[in-house]
């Protein structure tokens, strides 16, 4: 049996800008996981996930076919499809297998934390299949295959979540042109695409600085990043001048954050997140999306009152916010005040991989 664990993620800076190819974001991966168990089966395969629902699959002309339809499984089957096509192009023949997915990326009541479960599932499925067939692969190969499986379903996502799930720790991610890759898929083999360079794509691991802690506050209201990103995207053409400046300034925040973090300059880290927060506020106002909703605003204001660097994480509208503290900070007092404002501090640490 193959067992694979892939961590969840959180955005630290660069959200929305990174959706545009060639722009940057910073992410961390956290020690909550999607776990996949994969074992060989005969004649037909199965996928068990989501409250133990079991889907049976088989193949027709090397194409996976599933009897029932359930949208929650589409990322899993997209990942299986891409992994199998790649394996075939590498000259292997296919077996049947049973996959079981378990997740720590939602609460006991089944509410998502916003830790990137779809991305982690895609990476975990592809990784488990590559390992089952004992295919040699690099992190970059795994990223590219997972990104392809993901953009086929959501071409507007930046794939920063996929990069974090593959590279772990703290990363600086520069996005690639998804439209170009989707176009190439029509005429080129997956193997050729994976083996080629993807122009602006860059993924860099940054060494962890143990002087700083990432503190995560959860609002308990789940948000749909896809809807928020799509809504803003439709409004971008209404103010291109702002958008260009936004991209430029957002990249500057990402670079400033990384510089401050590496050099242990708390003031720089704090300034970069404050600047990024202000940019996201303007972005939300210009393109009519609600980022700092309700208690997300309180989350950031309370953390700031304690002298921390803080902002929303990801698309906003719910999910989580982050705060960065320095050695010796009394986290209990922040936790108490967050709690009084209906914000739960999640018990998470960075997963280095
Ligand atoms: O809300 P999250 O953690 O899924 O983050 C979304 C980040 C965006 O930049 C808004 C979208 C993306 O795909 O990068
Ligand atoms: Mg989110």
UniProtKB/TrEMBL annotation:
Keyword Nuclease attributed: no
Domain GHMP kinase N-terminal: 88-169
Swiss-Prot/TrEMBL GO biological process terms: isopentenyl diphosphate biosynthetic process, mevalonate pathway
Annotated pathway: Isoprenoid biosynthesis; isopentenyl diphosphate biosynthesis via mevalonate pathway; isopentenyl diphosphate from (R)-mevalonate: step 2/3
Annotated ranges, domain GHMP kinase C-terminal: 270-340
A Pfam family that the UniProt record links to this protein: GHMP_kinases_N
Alphabetical UniProt keywords: ATP-binding, Kinase, Nucleotide-binding, Transferase
Name of the molecule in the record: phosphomevalonate kinase
Species of provenance: Helcococcus kunzii ATCC 51366
InterPro entries per the UniProt record, alphabetical: GHMP_kinase_C_dom, GHMP_kinase_C_sf, GHMP_kinase_N_dom, Phosphomevalonate_kinase, Pmev_kinase_bact, Ribosomal_Su5_D2-typ_SF, Ribsml_uS5_D2-typ_fold_subgr
MF terms in GO: ATP binding; phosphomevalonate kinase activity
């Amino acid at each position: 049996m193959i067992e694979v664990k892939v961590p969840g993620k959180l955005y630290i800076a660069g959200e929305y800008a990174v959706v545009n190819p060639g722009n940057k974001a910073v992410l961390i991966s956290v020690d909550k996981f999607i776990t996949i168990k994969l074992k060989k089966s005969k004649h037909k395969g199965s996928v068990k996930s989501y409250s133990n629902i079991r889907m049976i699959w088989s193949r027709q002309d090397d194409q996976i076919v599933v009897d029932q339809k359930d949208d929650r499984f589409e990322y899993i089957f997209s990942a299986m499809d891409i992994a199998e096509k790649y394996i075939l192009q590498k000259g292997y023949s296919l077996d049947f297998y049973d996959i079981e997915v378990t997740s720590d990326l939602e609460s006991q009541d089944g509410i998502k934390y916003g830790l990137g479960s779809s991305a982690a599932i895609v990476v975990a499925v592809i990784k488990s299949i590559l390992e089952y067939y004992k295919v040699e692969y690099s992190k970059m190969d795994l990223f590219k295959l997972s990104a392809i499986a993901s953009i086929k379903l959501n071409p507007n996502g930046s794939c920063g979540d996929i990069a974090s799930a593959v590279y772990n720790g703290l990363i600086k991610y520069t996005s690639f042109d998804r439209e170009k890759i989707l176009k190439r898929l029509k005429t080129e083999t997956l193997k050729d695409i994976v083996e080629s360079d993807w122009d602006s794509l860059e993924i860099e691991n940054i060494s962890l600085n143990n002087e700083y802690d990432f503190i995560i506050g959860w609002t308990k209201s789940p948000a749909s990043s896809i809807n928020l990103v799509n809504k803003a995207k439709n409004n971008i053409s209404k103010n291109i001048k702002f958008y260009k400046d936004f991209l430029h300034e957002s990249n500057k925040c990402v670079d400033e954050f990384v510089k401050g973090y590496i050099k242990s300059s708390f003031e720089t880290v704090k300034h970069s997140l404050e600047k990024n927060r202000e940019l996201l506020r303007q972005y939300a106002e210009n393109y009519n999306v609600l980022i700092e909703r309700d208690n997300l605003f309180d989350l950031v204001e309370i953390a700031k009152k304690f002298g921390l660097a803080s902002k929303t994480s990801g698309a906003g509208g719910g999910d989580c916010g982050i705060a960065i503290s320095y050695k010796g900070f009394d986290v209990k007092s922040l936790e108490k005040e967050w709690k009084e404002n209906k914000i739960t501090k999640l018990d998470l640490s960075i997963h280095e991989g």
